[in-house]
Every structure is written in C-alpha cells, then in structure tokens.
Amino acid sequence: MAKYSFKYGKDKIDININDEHIIQTLFPKEAPFLKDIPKEVVKSLENPIGAPPLKEIVRSGEKVVIVVSDVTRLWVRTNEFLIHIVNYLNAQGIGDKDISILIALGSHRPSTEEEKKAIVGDDVYNRIAIYDHNCFDETKLCYLGESSFGTPIYINEKVINADRVILTGGIVFHLFAGFGGGAKSMVPGVAGIKTIQHNHRLTFYEGEGAGLNPDARSNKISGNPMREDITEICRRVNPDFLFNAVLDAEGNFIEFVAGDFEEAWLKGCNTIRKLYGISIKEKADIIVASAGGYPKDINLYQTVKTMDNCLYGGKEGSVIILISECREGLGAEEFLKWFKYKTLDEMESALKKNFTVPGYAAYKTMYTAKYRKVIFISSLPDDIVEKLGFIPSHDIGNALEIAYSLSPSSPKITVMPFGGNTLPIM
Predict the structure, then answer these.
(1) Separation between Cα atoms, residue 371 and residue 395, nearest integer Å
(2) Is the pTM of this model over 0.85?
(3) Same domain for 122 and 263?
C-alpha cells in the first residue's frame, strides 16, 4: 500500500491505495520562479517577442489603455506586475492622467471598488482611472464588421479610441479556448455580448443536437474554431502590446512573456505545456483527483476544470473520485438552474440560444456524469450532488470502495493531486 495526500480546502485528505494498481501519479513539473519582479517586468517590456520594445511603441502624450483580468482571475496577481508597467510608461513620458485601466469583465458582473483595488493594487488604484467593461451597453461599443466565422465584432470604445492598447493576463490551459490569456483579453474580455455569444457557440457543432466540437478543447490552438475566431478578431483590432504571466501550481511567477499578442502568448503556451501537460501511456479505470485545495476548490464552478482534465486521463465509463471542498457552494448563481434541462440535447439547444459560461460549465458537468461515474467528495449537500448526476461521499475510504465496486478487478488507477493544473496527454 502507498499513502497519497490530496488537498481539500485548506486541509488535506490521506488515503492508502494498493500501489500495484497505480499506473501513474501526475504532478506539475517544477520550474524556478522569478524573484526580482520589477526587474523581470522591465526586462520583458524591453525584450519582447514579435514586436519592438514598448518604449519604441509609445509616445509622450498618447492615451494608453491597459486591459486587465477581472476578480475571477486574481490568481494572475496583476497587482504585483501592473504597477511596474505603469511606472515604465511614466518613464517614457506617459503621465498617469493619460493611462486608463479597463477591466476585462467579458459577460461577468461589475466589479466592486474593493475588487478593483484587489485587482490593480493600492498604488495603481489611487493613481489611475479604472473602468469596468460592460458587454451589454451597445452605446459604449464599436462595431467592426464580422469575422470569417460570422461573428459580429463589437469592442469597447475605449480600446478602439485609444492611441495605444496593452493587453495583460495569465496563461493556463482552458477547457474550450485551448489556453487562457492572449487574445482572450479582447474576446470575451472587452467584447460585446453578441460577439461573446456567437464566438462561444463555436464550442458546439452547428445543428440541433450536434454536440460538442471536440476541437474546441484544452491544449488545442490550431483547428480550434473558437480560438481561431478570437485570434482573428484580436488581429482586426490589432492591440499594440501584450504582457502575460505564467505561474506555477503554488502561484509563483515563473515566466513573463511580452510583445505581439499572438507570438508572445504562444511562447507562454509552450511553457504551460511543458509544466502541466503530462504524458500518459494508457488511460485509467479509476482517477483519484483533487482540484488542488483552496482557492482552486472554492466552488463547483472552479472545479469544472479539474473535471475536464480528468476526462482526458480515463477510459469512457471509468470512475472519477473528485475531491473538492466547494466551501462557497456551486459558485455561480445560475449554474444549478441549467439542470432544469434533463438531457444534454436540451441543454445544448438552450446554450445555443443563450450561451453563458456557467451554462457551459453545467453542460460539461452533465456530460461528465453521462460518460463517467463520478464520486464527489465535497461539503455540498447530498441532494445537490445527486442532482448533478454524481455519487456523494464524505469519506475517501468509502469513495475508493465504491470506485472498486464499479470497476473491473485489479483496476488501473491514476492519481492527480493537482487536477486543476495537470492535463493528461496521450
């Protein structure tokens, strides 16, 4: 027997598993983290990829808009690098009054003042004008025609009217856009709701009940229709510069990439692949996975990423023991409402009419429950877990017994202690 530990909220859960059944344990690879953040930020701004140094792009007196991630992406730690970008612009003759911060809300709710301060940091909050994007206010959007995918392009007027636009964000695997970061700061970040919904519908095949497009998935860029549409729209707007962060599983900065919004981002994507894309030789009968503890398992909505990663590591019909505290419940008010639809086809039809990310997360949850047997260890009420199509459990030993009873004899087991960060790749 071998002992394994899984993070659960701010605690941990231990379990002994017959090591003869373990075929792989997936850990993110380690990388040295950046120690001198101000120095590394400036180094990236002056040694960009696919673009001139930022000091050769901006001119004194120009109006600069910096797009930043919203409060759902606090893990990006924007507050720790943004001040150095602002100070760098100051040194090039761009005063605070000529800089504005636009929070890329996509279709999320508005930010509170406390959230704005948490996103940008106290210094920037007290010096720079900060605005929320509003995807629903067409009077504050500019129309730029349609993409080749037929997506109507509506972009925040502050971006269109600025002399210079800098995108910021963080790069991770993304369950339907391939990777986060890059052009996602533009779409859905500062796009209109019509743009967002049409683009996100590309995650499905056209036609009633056609199902998910398997090319709109984690780790896929080329041939991913949703990502290609995002890139095309962003190239139409043509932002001047990008600054993206890559972080390890503990939240340390390990790389900054800067320059052209696509070329620099692709370098960061390759780093993510090396760190978190874990090669596997075979798929498992049972996967035991933790979302990675607090805050990654703060709610079910955040746990969907772990759930999606598990799909790539197990056989169809296999068992997933999913460990996620969910101390704040489901995480999105509308999430459970999508389960009024009793089949994937019904939910898909509703999503195609009114796509929302919580709705997609609900679809992915129902999809997982249909094609896997999920035993869910959480603080959620059992009736809610059962409504999701999962088997509730409050004891890891009991969960493992259930998993064995649902699996072939001598099952092959994969262990994923950091399920939200590790993507199994055949």
Answers:
(1) 23
(2) yes
(3) yes
